[in-house]
Design brief:
The complex is a heterodimer. Chain A is mainly alpha-helical. Chain A has helices at about 30-35, 40-65, 70-85, 95-110, 145-160, 165-175, 180-190, 190-210, 215-220. Chain A has one domain: Orthogonal Bundle (Rna Polymerase Sigma Factor, Chain: A), CATH 1.10.1740. Chain B is globular, with a radius of gyration of 26 Å. Classes of the chains: A mainly alpha, B mainly alpha.
Chain lengths: ~220, ~325
């Protein structure tokens, strides 16, 4: 997959275009968010119930489905969301705003747990996405495939851990939450070209780390 | 020497592919780009790695309910003005009660007890409940933004917006698991998760899907649906099954699976995905009018859905 690829010049961004008007008009949750910021507890409860699955999905993607801190991180993200609503101006959709907060909370959790230098040799992966009841698969020859996938996931997460937080955040929102560059810019409150630049740098940094370590390179290449 | 400029990376196409919102032609364009751009290839691998951990699970409702309760109890900033007003009113009432009763010379002990309960009502209990919900060893939440006390308001509450927000009657603090389950649209079964056999089948099917063993995953999801059709596991898995069937080219089967999910969980967390996938399948089958209706429903119920941006970009479903 990577063999034969070399460092290449990536064209820079174009003119700095201002973002068009925000999506608040089409956001079905924005009125709930405003009422929540004004002190409406019922609105807050409804909003948290509506945004919870969205935030949970992002937390799981960053931490891993079986990470022991998923529930704790979701709670932290929900608390942060409540605190941040007073500053929410509707520049992004409410769901993207919540996704950004969840991503940041999950990234912070991983960093608080300490960075582990990425060196794949001897790295066995945490297997944290393995289904809880898969002990039966110990005797399953296909378990090797599963272990490989789990190692790749944890490897990618550790690579992302090494990125500066703004780049990691942009990459997670883009690749894990599927947000476009404009949506990333809106959710993080930066100009479009800044978001594009962060993504470009993050992708280049990931690639450099993969190419630097032959074991990492091989692990990613051999995966199905 | 001039270094030839590579074509710009189609960032948005990669993101849309990550959320399953591109069609076959766009995927081919992306794949062509991935063959020549290592940066995007690594980013795509990252997207796939993240995606493997994203499936909805039957216990999600409990996690969401707990997080909402914890946030409301921990922060409380948004409701501080109203609580302050209530507390002040209760304290004033207590003072009046004490003064009146003292002048009558009766039951001083009981009066102070009542005053204490009245002042405390609605604050301590909620905070304790929220504290209990936090996982042992949990950390204080990172402050993303300061939380200034919002202004008190007695303005009338505007009506709730249309779906997908669940009804207020199913607040996370509601005692009945059945009512909050209905709020998230996860169907009728009691209990947080289905029987252990259903859970085991769901886990095996999910593992097979994540490992790329499509046929095995389809067979397991179908077996789960046949044997335990009313369980949350079976209902949630219909979206995954639909995706797998669609990827294998079985559009009618996939359509039936998405319809089954929408029928069982009309306000479920995966409704946007199911509606968008349904619309794409209907377009593929040439049932354009039905496809447009499905897009319109997605547009109406989830106006900021990421799936809609692709629809608008392609001009699909534009009303005449």
């Amino acid at each position: 997959m990577f063999k034969g690829h070399k460092l290449r010049v990536v064209p820079g961004g174009g003119a700095k275009l201002p973002l068009p008007p925000g999506p608040a008009e089409g956001d079905d949750l924005v009125s709930l968010a405003r009422r929540c910021a004004e002190g409406d507890e019922r609105a807050a409860t409804t909003l948290l119930t509506a945004l919870g699955p969205v935030m949970l999905q992002v937390v799981r993607r960053v931490l891993g489905a079986r990470h022991p801190d998923v529930e704790d991180t979701l709670q932290e993200a929900a608390v942060s969301l409540m605190r941040a609503l007073s500053t929410f101006r509707g520049d992004s959709s409410t769901r993207h705003f919540a996704r950004r907060i969840a991503a940041r909370a999950a990234i912070d959790v991983r960093r608080r747990q300490g960075r582990v230098p990425v060196h794949v040799s001897g790295f066995d992966g945490d297997d944290d996405d393995r289904p809880a009841d898969s002990a039966d698969e110990e005797r399953d020859p296909r378990r090797a495939d599963w272990a490989l996938v789990a190692r790749r996931r944890e490897l990618i997460r550790r690579l992302v851990d090494e990125l500066p937080v703004p780049q990691a955040e942009a990459l997670v929102l883009h690749c894990a939450a599927g947000m476009t560059v404009e949506e990333v810019a809106r959710a993080t409150g930066v100009p479009l070209e800044t978001a594009r630049s962060r993504l470009r740098l993050a992708k280049a940094a990931l690639r450099e780390r993969v190419e630097r370590d032959p074991a990492t390179f091989d692990l990613l290449e051999e995966l199905p | 020497m001039t270094i030839p400029k590579a074509p710009p990376c189609p960032d948005d196409r990669l993101a849309l592919a990550a959320r399953g919102a591109i069609d076959a032609a766009e995927w081919e364009t992306l794949r062509t780009h991935l063959d020549t751009c290592t940066d995007c290839t690594v980013a795509w691998i990252a997207a796939r790695a993240f995606d493997g951990s994203a499936g909805a699970e039957p216990a999600d409702e409990r996690l969401v309910r707990g997080a909402a309760r914890a946030a409301l109890a921990t922060v409380g900033a948004s409701s501080r003005p109203r609580r302050a007003l209530r507390s002040a009113a209760a304290a004033a009432a207590a003072v009046i009660l004490l003064a009146t009763a003292a002048s009558a010379g009766v039951f001083i002990g009981r009066r102070s007890q009542r005053a204490e309960v009245a002042v405390d009502h609605g604050t301590t209990a909620a905070r304790d409940e929220g504290r209990d919900r936090r996982v042992p060893g949990s950390r204080p939440a990172p402050a993303i933004a300061p939380a200034p006390a919002p202004a008190a308001t007695d303005a009338p509450v505007a009506p709730l917006p249309s779906a997908p927000s669940p009804p207020v009657a199913s607040l996370p603090s509601a005692p009945s698991p059945r009512s909050s389950r209905a709020a998230l649209g996860v169907g009728p079964p009691d209990g947080a998760v289905g029987p252990s056999r259903a859970r085991a089948l769901f886990a095996r099917a999910t593992a097979a899907r994540q490992a790329g063993r499509v046929s095995e995953a389809i067979a397991l999801f179908q077996r789960l649906d046949a044997e335990w059709p009313q369980t949350p596991e079976a209902i949630v898995s219909r979206v995954s099954l639909g995706d797998l069937l669609a990827a294998r080219g079985d559009a009618p089967g996939a359509l039936a699976s998405f319809d089954a999910y929408l029928g069982a969980a009309p306000t479920g967390p995966l409704v946007p995905e199911a509606l968008a996938a349904r619309a794409r399948l209907l377009s593929r089958l040439g049932r354009t009018e039905e496809a447009r209706r499905s897009w319109d429903e997605l547009d109406r119920r989830f106006p900021d859905s990421p799936y809609l941006s692709r629809r608008h970009a392609r001009g699909e479903g534009a009303l005449p």
